[in-house]
Amino acid sequence: MKTPLFPLNTLVCPGGKLPLRVFEQRYLDMVKHCLKQDTGFVVVMMKTDENGSEADSDGRSSSQIYRVGTMARIIDFDQDEDGILCVVAQGMSRVRLSRPERRPDGLWVGDVETLAEEAFFALPDEFVELKSVLQALVQHPVVKELNMDIDYRDGRQVGWRLTELLPLDNSQKQYLYELEDPLYRLEKISDQLDYMIS
Questions:
Q1: Are 85 and 47 within 8 A, CB to CB?
Q2: Does the pLDDT value for residue 51 go beyond 70?
Q3: Element spanning 4, H or E
Q4: Among 63, 86, 112, 160, whose Cα sits 20 to 30 Å from the Cα of 69?
């Protein structure tokens, strides 16, 4: 069984939460299937051009989705006053995609391989300012509403949450996400912040 893919212009890392408004029939069917079978789907980022637009707006080419995404599970759902399904998905694990294909109903599916889980490592003192930046970002009303449980002592979690929340373009976020060394990820995030405020 191939796993359903949800190509988006955003990223969720393991442990992160992603609010989604679902209205297209292919994704409504996907959500229904995932809830019924207690299975997940893969959130995968779309590649964008230099203007930040989707490089292939009709979504027909598999070359326009990245090959490392996040297996996610639906942890909450509701319907708003317009009848649109509101879902909260939680990132579970990093996965590598292969053989993505588009079904006749437009839903992307692919084979997935779970990647090794990053181990806990204590946030080094030299990156304590990143903890402060993250604590400020989670006070934003939209983020605060997600009620994320963050262990600020865990350098891995600090890096993942900043990768999700910082205003970086898709290619930068994907680069940080695919790094396999959480310490190096923090170093690169620190460099990005220095660049943004210089």
A1: no
A2: no
A3: strand 3-8
A4: 86
pTM for the full predicted model: 0.88
Residues 45, 191: contact at Cβ < 8 Å? no
Q: What is the pLDDT of residue 27?
A: 93
Instruction: Say if residue 110's pLDDT is above 80.
Output: yes
**CA–centroid distance for 70 within its chain:** 6
Report the candidate in 44, 159, 35 with the shortest Cα–Cα distance to residue 88. 35
Q: Are 69 and 190 in contact (CB under 8 A)?
A: no
Mean of pLDDT values over 108-122: 93
Tell me what the mean pLDDT of segment 115-123 comes to.
92
User: Which residue carries 């009709």 as its tokens?
Assistant: 58
Residues present in the chain in total: 198
Q: Residue ranges of the alpha helices (H) in the chain?
A: 25-37, 128-137, 141-145, 155-165, 170-178, 182-197
